[in-house]
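An example makes the point: we let one protein speak, the chain in one-letter code, the fold tokenised, and here it is:
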Amino acid sequence: MIVEEDLALLQETAKEIIGQLNCDLTPETAISAIDGWDSVAMVRILLTLECEMNVQFDTTEIANIKTISDVLNLMKNGR
């Protein structure tokens, strides 16, 4: 399933950029609940995902990211 694959890619990318995550990522996880996931980490994570997926995300959607589900939707829409 694409959502599970995207979630695994997102989790792996976040760990590479942030380091140890303080929680498992689920679609319901709030970005604000993840230690180390600040605006700089967000940009680095999204740029890495764009390169990995060979897509370009819509910047208007990026501004509205609040949860992991929002990131997964961005990934899905970028395909």
The chain has a mean pLDDT of 92.
